[in-house]
Each structure stands twice: as structure tokens, then as C-alpha cells.
Write a sequence for this structure.
């Protein structure tokens, strides 16, 4: 695997390249349109949906407010139930822990449940350096891994690929990774899925160690939860002897009963189903059933930085459903790669700066601007993360981080423009003059150097033939 | 300082100004589960569903696994002729078996979900995963209305598997396709008296 997000250009540059890819735009429009309709249909079925969202947000907020207590309780319960608990300050530490467990069992391969957190820490690449192969077993992750590609969506990392491209990847790449695809493979989705089934089955049956994430970790009982569709998660969680779960510290919920809120919110928001095909829960080791050695790695990696941000800490409520990606007009057009992170879309535009900090690199600093602030993400968020407000606050943080230095040209231009706007709107005479200029000015605006970053990507609407104030003056408010 | 102590210290520092941790859970009105709705919702997932009386259960189960090699968990309440009773079969051995017959712990009407807690009559997690056909017996009185009713009945200290239809994926153009790694055929038999 050579694909990496490291060194990605800032969002506007990456977005421009993505916008020119018509195949990508077609694939994304089709996929996000499909999922938006499905979500809307099943959400409409739930009478108390708004109450559920409020409860989801409240449970997460309460947990975060007392996170230390919940983490200590989670650790104690896990230990009581026979699990081994590790703590990792950052990606490198987490990767070392997982590699160490693999080496202690002398395994040279692990099977993986789809997990955002292990992508975030670059676990596969770290294991590869130690000579350990990490096989992705989720269908979309398999497509990305075989294609030496990057994930572009939280739920469906291969959303940018259509069925014909997937067929090609299977035909060309499966043989090198194990059981080859049949030569007469068509692009029928059922046939593609069945090919993945056969390819991965031999890996499931022989694997001695699995790595997973967790959707939820229950402090009161030490229970971990994985929500999935294909059964690859069940295979990994059940068949190997050793299971290692890497869990972000924000995944904690206080009680087992709290799960009912999230198990109603998550499937409807993410795949647009009343319930996902499979949900597995396990509490430490169950004698005689499943892995007899269970490890849990509790990971910080920037989460405490986000937690300290009073406006931004709500981003840690996120349950990774990806509804905000599917409704975002920006994401729908540019896709996930332009965000330069495993967390793309509106949630990525806030999570990345919150976890990494602003003022460090141009790519992260560009993300809070990757939005029109339309608010669609906030409306669909199952845990009511006010993404637009966090974006605005982060923009202020980016500007503050650059104050004293030379601000980036787009932000400087915005500051100058806003000063001009304030002067114009502040005076009725100047406003009247400006309105007369609008009709002349729309064409010119496209070519003004100061406005190009804005106008290049947008069509400026035509000015009206007459302003409201001019009409009022001419007709005396419609009386003549 | 250990990683544990350092992370907990960072958490403490980050949350000193956070608001209190109280929250209200939404009141859930418990209603009896509708078997009609349960059947309709399970069918929506492209599973096979049938309803029968306790007297005809044995015949229905035999018909559902006709021509298949079958594994059953210890403690199954119905006789399945020629079935192997699981006594720790390996994954490779289970891969040679066509079908599994189990009971369940709870059925959820609203979402068409079956929950297994892998106790007697349900067996180890692996036996309901590797064979390609899962025949699952649900008693009508095990059907509850919605997810909160199910969560209230379940024991978190047991491994739990929530099953909503056969294995499926939406990873190709976000259209649902049935049949990936888990059992591709889910056959639910609801027993009513």
C-alpha cells in the first residue's frame, strides 16, 4: 500500500482537481442521492425522531462532561471480564501496542473489521512495516485496499467507485492477495459481493488474530459494540483466537440502556435502514465462545485537544453515521479525497482541525472553509452537532492563529471585502450608489483579482433590473 | 507518567469547565409487540418468514433444511433428524455444514430484528455465522415492540448478536445487495399457540 493522505494540498486545490473528474461527480451524485432518499424514508417513520436526537446529544454531552469517571469505570469492568486494557496517547503508541500483540503470537497476518480509528492511526501501514499483513474485510475497504486507493466516505469508503470500476479492480488485483476473481466476472453487484465472499472466506477461516474498532463502549458493563452489515465483523469478532479492539476514548456511553437510543439513531442515519443486518456485542472473554484473548486499546490521539475546545467538543458526540456527508452540497460535488483525511465531509472539516489544532499546516487550516454554511449537516445529524457554528468558530481560530504573521491571501481578501461591505451598508447614500453599480458590476466581478477565489467556483446571479429602493422611490411604495 | 495517567489528566483538564453530566432519558411507553408487524418487517429484508403452531414446528423445521447437512446447538427444543449437535466444531468443519437451526432470545417488531444471546438452544456465535442457511425459531411471546423493550430484556454480560435479515451490503453504489459473509439465507419460523 502506497496511497496516503500525507502531503495532500489544501482543500481549494484538491477540490478543483476533483471537480474536473466527471466520472467521480456522476458516481457521487448517484450514491448520495440514493442514500438521502432512503434515510429520509426511514427517519420519517419514527414519530419521536427529534426527541431521540436530543437524547443522543444529551447522553454524549453528559458522558463527555464526566469522561474521566466513565473511562476509569470502563477499564475496571473490562479487566473484571478478562480483557487486557491498554492506553495509547497517539497513533504511534497504539500501532506499537497492536504490533506487539501480533508479534507475541507470531502471526504474520490479521483480519480487520472496518474501523475509522485504525485508518486514522495508519495501522495497516504500521503493521506492514513489521511484516504483518492486515486484510480489510469490509467490501468497500477491500475495494480501496485492492485498488491501492484512499477512502473517500466514512461509511462507504469506495463510494467514488462504480460497479464497472470495482469489477476491474477485482479482476486485476485479487489474485495477488489470495483467491483470484473468476475470469468471467460481470459487474452485477450480487456477483461482485459473492466474489468478495469467496476471496475473504479463506482468510477468515485461517486467521488467528483480528483487529476491530467499536461503535460504542459501555462503561457500566465493559461491553463493546460493533454495528455492521456484511457479517465480516462477526467473522473477525468470533473466529480468531485473539481480538484487539482500538477504541477512541469518546466512544464511551454510560449504561447498557443508553444503547437503545443509539441503536435507533445510527442505522436509520447511516445506511437508511430500520436496522443494520448485524450488531455484535461482547463483554470481555466468554469461555468457550469466541476469542479467548481480548485486548482493548483506549486511544486519545487528539481527542482530548478537541475535548478542551468549548465550542468544538460537541464534535466528539459523532457516531460516524456519515449522514452529514450525504446531504452536503460541497461533499456531493468534490468527494472525500479533497478533504485530505479519513474523516471527510462536514464532520471532517471540524474534526481534523479540532484534533490536530489550527495554525500548523495549510491543509488543516483550509478545512473550516470547505463549506457554504448551509446547515443541512446540522439538520440530519443524529446527535445534533451544530457543525456550522463549529466551522465559524474554527474560521476565527484559523484567522487568530495567523494574526501577526501574513494571513493567507483568501482570508486577507475576505477581511478587506468585509470592511468595504460594512462601509457600504452603513450609509444609505453609499448603498443606493452600490445598487446601481450591481447591474454593471456582475460581469466585472468575475475578473477582479481580489474576488477570483470566490467567483471562479461560482456563478454570480444576474443583478435585478431595478433595486427595491429605486422601485420604492419611483412608485412611491406602489402607490403610483 | 504512564499513558493512562497522562490521558486521564488531559481529560480532567479539558473538562473542568464542562457543564454537569445530568440528562433525561426519553420516556418509553411499552407496548406489546405485534407479530404481524414483526413478520412484515423481517420479510422486508428478503428473509423467508413463516408462522406455525407448536404442533407443526417439527415438520416446518425439517422442510426448511431439507437436503442440507445441519448443525444444531445443545439444548434445542425441537428434534432435527440427522443433525450434528455442536460440541466445539472448528470453523473449517462448520464451513462444510449447509444449515443451522437455533432458537432466539428476543424478536423486535419495529425493526424486524432477532436477537440471540447464545445460551442453550442458540449455541456458540460461530455456528450461526459460518453455515449459509440459518433457520431461527422465534416464539410469538418473545416478540417485543421496539429496540428499548429488547435492550431492557437482554443480559449485557452475554455475547449478543442482533440479526436483521440475511447478510447484506450497500457498498456498491449504495444499493442493498443480499448475501456477503454471514448466512445468505435467513429463515424465520414464528411459533404461535
Amino acid at each position: 500500500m502506497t496511497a496516503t493522505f500525507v502531503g495532500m494540498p489544501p482543500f481549494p486545490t484538491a477540490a478543483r482537481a476533483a471537480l474536473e473528474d466527471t466520472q467521480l461527480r456522476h458516481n457521487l451524485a448517484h450514491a448520495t442521492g440514493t442514500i438521502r432518499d432512503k434515510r429520509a424514508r426511514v427517519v420519517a417513520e419514527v414519530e419521536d425522531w427529534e426527541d431521540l436526537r436530543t437524547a443522543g446529544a444529551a447522553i454524549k454531552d453528559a458522558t463527555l462532561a464526566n469522561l474521566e469517571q466513565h473511562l476509569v469505570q470502563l477499564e475496571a469492568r473490562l479487566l473484571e471480564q478478562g480483557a487486557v486494557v491498554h492506553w495509547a496517547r497517539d497513533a504511534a503508541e497504539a500501532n506499537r501496542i497492536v504490533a506487539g500483540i501480533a508479534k507475541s503470537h507470531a502471526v504474520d497476518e490479521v483480519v480487520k473489521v472496518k474501523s475509522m480509528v485504525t485508518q486514522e492511526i495508519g495501522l495497516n501501514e504500521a503493521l506492514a512495516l513489521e511484516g504483518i499483513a492486515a486484510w480489510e474485510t469490509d467490501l468497500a475497504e477491500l475495494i480501496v485496499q485492492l485498488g491501492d486507493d484512499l477512502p473517500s466516505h466514512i461509511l462507504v469508503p469506495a463510494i467514488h467507485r462504480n460497479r464497472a470500476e470495482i469489477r476491474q479492480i477485482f479482476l486485476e488485483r485479487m489474485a495477488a492477495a489470495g483467491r483470484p476473481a473468476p475470469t468471467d466476472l460481470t459487474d452485477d453487484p450480487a456477483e461482485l459481493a459473492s466474489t468478495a465472499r469467496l476471496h475473504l472466506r479463506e482468510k477468515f477461516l485461517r486467521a488467528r488474530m483480528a483487529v476491530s474498532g467499536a461503535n460504542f463502549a459501555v462503561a457500566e458493563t465493559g461491553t463493546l459494540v460493533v454495528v455492521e452489515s456484511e457479517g465480516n465483523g462477526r467473522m473477525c469478532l468470533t473466529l480468531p483466537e485473539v481480538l484487539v479492539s482500538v477504541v477512541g476514548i469518546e466512544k464511551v456511553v454510560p449504561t447498557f440502556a443508553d444503547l437503545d437510543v443509539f441503536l435507533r439513531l445510527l442505522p436509520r442515519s447511516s445506511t437508511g435502514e430500520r436496522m443494520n443486518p448485524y450488531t455484535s456485542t461482547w463483554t470481555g472473554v466468554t469461555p468457550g465462545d469466541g476469542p479467548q484473548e481480548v485486548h482493548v486499546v483506549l486511544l486519545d490521539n487528539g481527542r482530548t485537544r478537541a475535548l478542551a475546545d468549548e465550542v468544538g467538543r460537541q464534535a466528539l458526540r459523532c457516531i460516524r453515521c456519515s449522514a452529514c456527508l450525504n446531504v452536503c452540497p460541497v461533499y456531493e460535488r468534490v468527494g472525500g479525497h479533497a478533504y485530505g483525511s479519513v474523516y471527510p465531509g462536514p464532520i471532517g472539516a471540524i474534526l481534523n482541525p479540532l484534533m490536530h489544532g489550527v495554525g500548523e499546516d495549510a491543509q488543516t487550516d483550509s478545512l473550516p472553509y470547505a463549506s457554504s454554511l448551509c446547515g443541512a449537516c446540522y439538520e440530519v445529524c443524529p446527535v445534533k452537532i451544530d457543525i456550522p457554528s463549529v466551522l465559524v468558530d474554527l474560521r476565527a481560530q484559523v484567522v487568530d492563529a495567523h494574526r501577526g504573521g501574513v494571513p493567507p491571501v483568501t482570508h486577507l481578501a475576505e477581511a478587506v471585502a468585509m470592511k468595504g461591505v460594512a462601509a457600504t451598508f452603513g450609509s444609505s447614500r453609499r448603498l443606493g450608489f452600490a445598487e446601481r453599480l450591481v447591474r454593471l458590476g456582475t460581469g466585472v466581478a468575475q475578473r477582479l483579482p481580489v474576488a477570483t477565489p470566490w467567483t471562479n467556483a461560482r456563478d454570480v446571479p444576474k443583478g435585478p433590473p431595478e433595486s427595491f429602493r429605486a422601485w420604492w422611490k419611483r412608485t412611491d411604495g406602489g402607490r403610483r | 507518567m504512564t499513558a493512562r495517567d497522562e490521558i486521564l489528566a488531559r481529560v480532567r483538564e479539558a473538562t473542568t469547565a464542562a457543564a454537569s453530566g445530568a440528562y433525561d432519558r426519553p420516556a418509553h411507553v411499552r407496548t406489546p409487540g405485534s407479530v404481524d408487524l414483526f413478520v412484515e418487517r423481517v420479510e422486508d429484508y428478503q428473509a423467508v418468514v413463516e408462522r406455525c403452531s407448536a404442533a407443526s414446528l417439527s415438520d416446518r423445521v425439517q422442510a426448511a433444511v431439507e437436503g442440507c447437512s445441519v448443525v444444531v446447538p445443545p439444548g434445542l427444543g425441537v428434534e432435527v433428524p440427522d443433525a450434528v449437535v455442536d460440541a466445539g466444531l472448528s470453523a473449517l468443519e462448520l464451513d462444510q455444514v449447509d444449515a443451522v437451526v437455533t432458537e432466539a432470545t428476543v424478536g423486535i417488531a419495529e425493526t424486524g430484528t432477532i436477537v440471540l444471546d447464545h445460551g442453550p438452544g442458540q449455541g456458540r456465535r460461530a455456528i450461526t455465522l459460518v453455515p449459509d442457511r440459518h433457520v431461527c425459531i422465534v416464539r410469538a411471546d418473545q416478540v417485543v415492540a421496539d429496540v428499548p423493550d429488547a435492550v431492557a430484556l437482554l443480559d449485557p454480560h452475554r455475547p449478543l448478536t442482533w440479526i436483521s435479515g440475511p447478510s447484506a451490503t450497500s457498498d456498491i453504489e449504495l444499493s442493498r445487495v443480499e448475501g456477503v459473509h454471514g448466512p445468505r439465507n435467513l429463515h424465520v419460523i414464528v411459533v404461535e399457540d
Remarks:
- The helical segments of chain B are 3-14, 35-44, 57-64, 91-94, 147-153.
- The radius of gyration of chain B is 20 Å.
- The first helix of chain B runs from residue 3 to 14.
